[in-house]
From TrEMBL:
GO molecular function per UniProt: carbohydrate derivative binding; DNA binding; DNA-binding transcription factor activity
Annotated SIS domain residues: 123-264
Organism (species): Pseudonocardia kunmingensis
Taxonomic lineage: Bacteria, Bacillati, Actinomycetota, Actinomycetes, Pseudonocardiales
Name of protein: RpiR family transcriptional regulator
Record InterPro entries: Homeodomain-like_sf, HTH_RpiR, RpiR-like, RpiR-like_SIS, SIS_dom, SIS_dom_sf, WH-like_DNA-bd_sf
SUPFAM superfamilies in alphabetical order: Homeodomain-like (SSF46689), SIS domain (SSF53697)
Keywords linked to the UniProt accession: DNA-binding, Transcription, Transcription regulation
GO BP: carbohydrate derivative metabolic process
Amino acid sequence: MPLRDRIDEHRGRLSPADRSVVDVLLSHPTEAAFLPAEQVAERAGVHVATATRLAKKLGYAGYPQLRSALQSELLEGVDAAARVRRRLDRSPDEDLVAGLVDDEVAALRGVARAVAQEELDGVAARVLAARRVLVYARGNATVLSALLARRLRRFGLPVVDLPGSDRDLAEELVSLHRDDLVVALAFRRPPRTLRPLLATAHEVGAPVVLVTDVLGDDLGAASTTVLAAPRGNGREFQSLTVPMAVVNALVLTIARAAAGRTTTALERLEELLERFDT
């Protein structure tokens, strides 16, 4: 049953605080679908427990299940062609450059609300403390994984850009250690190999950082830190602008947290580049 139908069915049981959460969910569904319960409750001006109780009143096991259902409704039956068509149909005669900039600016405004600097500080500390950083992505997200791996490598950090084939990925994970850190980037629909990767990391005790716009209830675990990257309307064309901003913010946070270490590495890189360019 769709979320809106569940709300209508149970409306008589909803408290004023419940209705405040419902207003947040229904007024901005494309953004609320990718926010944790704490942020939804904050916007509604209620305690986080209210969001959990609301989810249970509506028949979900908890708030993560409600959020997953809302995400599924937003994404259901919308393929790549349909998303592009919806975006073009919305404003057929507009200046596409100006319209795209407006969409991206609106999405970027949500980044500061979705990702706190304290979260980035915590992830940066894990990156700097890790024996190795293993970066995972598939599809379009590989643009971001390549960027992140390259930046970290230039900082002198040990990085593994995990390979694309299933067999090569499995071989790379044989040496996965609890002192390693897995950074996974997954958007819209999680890649098939993401869950086995997370299961393997949790099995050996390696912490995971997940940069995503799909906060499914079964993707996280106690050792997983999620950096939300909501990209706007999931039923229309979406770009990588928001997750790119999150990745760049993380890179700069790492550079600030270990300024001496990263500066020394970059200076050494310049020396090596001059050596190899001659």
